[in-house]
């Protein structure tokens, strides 16, 4: 496998991982993953090395964008910028409790 093909494979995997993590993997959002796969398959027949490098760079940049937007959103939540954080705090407490083998009790709501 050539170095370009290896790099393209690595970028493809990272992009699919970012799409699954930040956009979602359910049926309603499946078209994002399908579009990425379709674009990589179309680009596999390109023989011009400069075009291949540009496509790989575009995919790498889009992966970076997805990860950065998600990280930015997490930062905004952590800084409490006009956001109700009760669900976020509940999720974090649940993960902390689960890490030591406990579960949070159900809150009674009359």
UniProtKB/TrEMBL annotation:
Name under which the protein is recorded: Complex 1 LYR protein
